[in-house]
Amino acid sequence: MKKSMSAARLFAGLAALMLSCTLLAAPQTPDELADTYRTTVDRRLQPPDGEVAAYAALVDAAFAAAQVLLERAQYVVVVDRNPHVQAVLLLWWSGEGSYRLVGASPVSTGAPGRFDYFQTPLGVFEHGPWNPDFRAEGTLNENGIRGYGDKGMRVFDFGWQRVPKGWGDHAVIDMRLQMHATQALRQPVPDAGRYLVIVDSGRTKRPAWSPLPRAVRRK
């Protein structure tokens, strides 16, 4: 992950599904939101039910370790930073202990070994006003890259985290954890959540449901 950039470079419109929806008529149920995901997110993964259950168990364990008790039904964004997976799952927690998959997509949590990239931290990260979100300016950086996307896209900020550098001496220093970028237009949805949960599934091989990105396969 790049310093002051992101823990997960989610595709446009994806992170918005945690707290909002880009359609004029906002989905009112998890089933409706899943339909919206299928029709508006162009890069999707289809983890089997058993995989979803395994991720739900990892999320429960992460919440328990962080002493977070969910008190109502809500959406949770889950990122598997494992290099053989690199996926984000949008889950809905029912309020009674069960999870439902809304959608899943490929994600990038950084490029180990490259300058200014960091190890993505594990754990539960709460989204709140103490780390204000902001809008992308849409400008190019010194490398000609529009890092936060088009002007107006929203960047979710999860504050400073101490993590190992991905290059050089791998010293532990401060890094800004951010998730970006999302559609500028959005509508609130019921059961809006506030948690990003980053896990590592510990895989040693890439699962069939999460293939390598096309750009990587061409190399």
Q: Give the overall average pLDDT.
A: 81
Q: How many individual helices? A: 4
Give the amount of beta strand, in percent. 25-35%
Sequence stretches where pLDDT stays below 50 over 5 or more residues? 2-24
| Helicity level | 10-25%
Order of helices and strands: EHEHHEEEEEEEEEH
**Coarse morphology:** globular
Question: Main β-sheet: number of strands, strand sense, barrel status?
Answer: 5 strands, mixed
Distance between the termini: 22 Å
Strand order of the largest sheet: 5-4-3-11-6
Broad structural category: alpha+beta
Rg is: 17 Å
For the record, the count of structural domains works out to 1
Number of strands: 11
Please tell me about this protein's structure.
The protein is α+β, with helices and mostly antiparallel strands and 219 residues long. The chain has helices spanning 16-19, 30-40, 49-66, 214-217; strands at 8-9, 20-21, 74-80, 87-93, 99-106, 123-126, 134-135, 154-164, 172-182, 187-188, 195-199. The chain is built from four helices and eleven strands. The strands form three sheets. It has a five-stranded mixed sheet. Residues 2-24 have low confidence and may be disordered. It has one domain (8-217). Strand 4 (87-93) and strand 5 (99-106) form a beta hairpin.
